[in-house]
Amino acid sequence: MSADVWSKVTAFRAAADGRARGLYPFFRAFDVHEGPEAVIEGRRVTMFGSNNYLGLTTHPKVREAAREAVRRLGTSTTGSRLINGTLRLHEELEQRLAAFLGRPSALVFTTGYQVNLAVCSALLAEGNVAVVDRGVHASIYDGVRLATSSGARMVRFGHNSASSLHRHLSRLDDGEGALVMMDGVFSADGVVARLDEIVPVIRAHRARVMIDDAHGLGMLGPGGRGTVHHFGLESEVDLIGGTFSKSLASVGGYLVGDEAVIDYIRHNASPFIFAASGAPATLAAALAALEVMQEETWRIDRLRENSEYMARGLRLLGFDIGATTTAIIPILIGDEERTVEVWRDLLESHAIYTNPFLFSSVAAGGALLRTSCMATHEQGHLDRGLEAFEAVGRKHGLI
Length: 399
Ligand code: PMP
Prior knowledge:
This protein has helices at 7-11, 14-20, 60-73, 88-101, 112-123, 138-149, 162-170, 195-204, 227-230, 259-268, 270-273, 280-295, 298-317, 336-350, 379-395, and strands at residues 30-33, 37-40, 43-47, 105-109, 128-133, 153-157, 177-183, 208-212, 239-243, 253-257, 328-334, 352-353, 355-357, 367-372.
């Protein structure tokens, strides 16, 4: 035996090269996180790079719920939902989510990432096809990889294209069963899935559909119910998945659907069964955030207003922000190095925090700066952001 498994480790230069050139954007530690502002390495910055869309991570009710859960239940379940890790709190959250999203049944997971792994690995096997939008989140691709190891295959359709989906579904063999999966709001480009065109195609082909609405919840639909409700398609979509790590100000994931399919996943998905369940504080925070979202609906309106203001401002300045209509506003740049330089200038010269999305979070050559708005951004934050974007946009020839 001559090959060393570790050879890839010694060959990995990207991070070290980036650090050496002062162009390494990842794993920056925050000292303090207050929502629209944060302190990073001793400097106060304005946040345009979080998924805390409704600003609930610091809400007094949400904080207090987490504190009370720790006081009453401790810090961890230390076990899987299947055996010693189910709390009444899991069940309560499942009942609330099912009721809120108008579906018979819900399942709560430790992360949103596991939701997609669980759905794919439990439901797709030999003779099944995962039909995914090209722009889906990495967790769907990872889930599909698990499914392919049990004999399923994958086809990808054009980003948000009902006609491409129709072509691909038409080519499936008669005996194959298909599950179509896509984000409700795409995590990198902020585009809303055209479910009004896409779901009828899926139904016409008698395929199944799961929408990962990690970003849509709290952004779209009546009461923030998300993308599927935004289009009034809740009775047409088989499964809706999502996360607590964005509008719901916590950590964890959920899946809603019919009782039988949720029960099947509960008993057959290893990513669900072989991981410890969500901790009391995270469950209580998500539950409280769900309540606050329903009580303080101004947050959903404010998020939309702030997002529209920023998108309009950036477009007027001449930035290419693609087709977003949501709080996720990408600044499309293309070149990776340029993207990281713009990111560094925003942070170092203007105290504006954003996130560079490089390959493989986005397609090769499609590097972008992902910015996002919050309901709790005040006018001053938005204007400070626009001024900084204008300055770096001119300096780097983006506008
Ligand atoms: N799906 C999408 C579309 C996401 O953006 C994310 C998180 N970035 C996830 C799933 C995974 O969620 P979590 O952070 O809860 O693991």
